[in-house]
Amino acid sequence: MAGVIPFDDRDGFIWFDGELAPWRDAKIHVLTHGLHYGSCVFEGERVYGGKVFKLAEHTERLLVSGDILGMKIPYSAAEIDAAIMATVKANGIVDGYVRPFAWRGSEMMGVAAQSSKIHLAVAVWSWPSYWSPEARMRGIRLNISQWRRPHPDTAPVAAKAAGLYMICTMSKHKAEGDGFEDSLMLDYRGQVAEATGANIFFVFDGELHTPLADCFLNGITRQTVIAIAKKRGLKVVERAIFPEELTKATECFLSGTAAEVTPVREIGPYTFLPGEISKMLINDYDALVRS
């Protein structure tokens, strides 16, 4: 795309296996296990005013994700936190995005890779808010994906693992090709699950309802929004939600590190009016991340 700077050709520094390296020198071999077999875990974090929001929580989840995939990340939480902050500082990021990630290297090429080295890298880049306040409150449009979130017995659903996002990419490409901004994914039971990279909430009769996070990631932003809503005195209900119920929902929004709190005005045949609850939670979330 014209005007887009590719991610392999930028100025700056990436923290790579214990030291800051020039951005363009942070490379791996084409026979890296993480590329061929999906043995990679990662986090998405935001920097607001030079501070990483929920840094400790994200680092802990990265370590847990690695453990779930049998990848013992060779750095402590404190060392990962320090690496992230050093990378933010080295690149002069004030408002931006942080991507720490760990993967199996190229020592073994096959399904089994017990002897492969576990690598860790941290990249950061500038990333201002997606939307103006006016554009955000217009709400986005979602289609409904043909792909479903898998049963917990068939995939490591509690890990933020690269392989779990393949169906997200396929779903989002289809959605954008059809003129939508994102896609709603159902789960293996046909229940509402999440969007391709964000959790989802609905307002029913003044209450906030969200799917149980039993086969998809219980997002850190999701947990934050629930806490904000409860502090505001809103009743929060985590439950199974079926698509046909959406005719009764008055508001809908997504939550995530990238999405923050983003209202939705349409999901397939269902429509919503971004309203006061969405606006209140947007304002409270924006205030919290910059506090």
Characterise this structure.
The protein folds into two domains: 13-126, D-amino Acid Aminotransferase, Chain A, domain 1 (2-Layer Sandwich), CATH 3.30.470; 133-289, D-amino Acid Aminotransferase, subunit A, domain 2 (D-amino Acid Aminotransferase, Chain A, domain 2), CATH 3.20.10.10. 26% of the residues lie in helices and 30% in strands. Strands 8, 9, 10, 11, 12, 13, 14, 15 and 16 form a nine-stranded mixed β-sheet that branches. The mean pLDDT is 96. The chain contains seven helices and 16 strands. It is an alpha+beta fold and 291 residues long.
Summary, kept brief:
By secondary structure, the protein is of the alpha+beta class. It is 26% helix and 30% strand.
Descriptors:
291 residues, alpha+beta, D-amino Acid Aminotransferase, Chain A, domain 1, D-amino Acid Aminotransferase, Chain A, domain 2, 7 helices, 16 strands, 26% helix
Share of helix, binned: 25-40%
**Major sheet, described briefly?**
9 strands, mixed
| Overall mean pLDDT | 96
Strand portion, in percent? 25-35%
CATH homologous superfamily descriptor of the largest domain: D-amino Acid Aminotransferase, subunit A, domain 2
Q: Given the helix and strand composition, which structural class is it?
A: alpha+beta
Number of domains: 2
CATH class of the largest domain, please?
A: Alpha Beta
SSE pattern, N- to C-terminal: EEHEEEHHEEHEHEEEEHEEEEH
Say what the CATH topology of the largest domain is: D-amino Acid Aminotransferase, Chain A, domain 2
Number of helices: 7
Described by the principal axes of the CA atoms, the overall outline is: globular
N-to-C span: 36 Å
